[in-house]
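As the next step, I selected for study a record pairing a protein sequence with its backbone structure tokens, which the following lines show:
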Amino acid sequence: MFGYVKAYKPYMRVCEFEFFKSVYCGLCKRLYAVGGAAAAATLSYDFVFLTLFRLGTDKTDMRVKKCRCPFHPLHGVSCIEAENSEAFEYSADAACILTYHKLRDDIYDKGFKKKAAALALLPFFVRPYRQASKRRGQLSQAVSKAMKAQRALERERACSLDLAAQPTAEIMRAVFRCAAGLDPDERERFGRFGYMLGRYVYICDALDDIFEDLRLGGYNPLLNGKKTLNREEYKKIASYAGQSINFTLGALSAAYSEIELNGTQSVADNIVYLGLRDAFKRVVLKGLKRFNDNKREDK
């Protein structure tokens, strides 16, 4: 959906990275089956991480199998398959539901290019969304409710970052709660983790979109009514966002420490403890690079 929940490859063993890629390809294969090429093309690392969680809690045997890739037809790819597991089915349904709402949100408040892209993709997601909503009614209702709250906040142009991040946090709470088993304690642990992950994703996305929102006059709680932005002001905003990220990742790590994953723990550890911080750092550096590029153009 957003792509900020990534692995930190420099600290991954080769076997871990190959396993991660196999989960990615397995989920891509499932998305292609339920929504065609359009659904598979929208796959993000966020849902691969969700699949790792679900595979870890299913406590089922996993095996690697060679399969054909529609995007790379000349050679096969390695896909993870799990016995008696619906990890990929659930992640694909969640991806269809969230992507459908994300496309509608892009039509609602993004610039011309993103609106055009969303309008072109949305028809391909109507049927997969309806089918996924039938299978995951509780999740679909929670996402719809949170998206309505998000649009209300955007209309009010709320300046509080915590308030603005709430709907996304609630979406991810619902996604991870539904990914847990029937044990209420496990659902609560997963929900706490998902809530903090949603906060993290929203803050990263708000900082990443800050220049586009500034140019188009879009809603962004980090701008706080600003019409222009210089390098020093951006650094102050990034520092403020970083403080909120530090708090969020601290609470996220505490929730994560209470969750036991089987067979996927080491890869999930890499993402939680290293990948998330690295992804936010890259967003900050990307913003600073814009000012460096502007200086070179001025010269």
Summary: The longest strand covers residues 72-82.
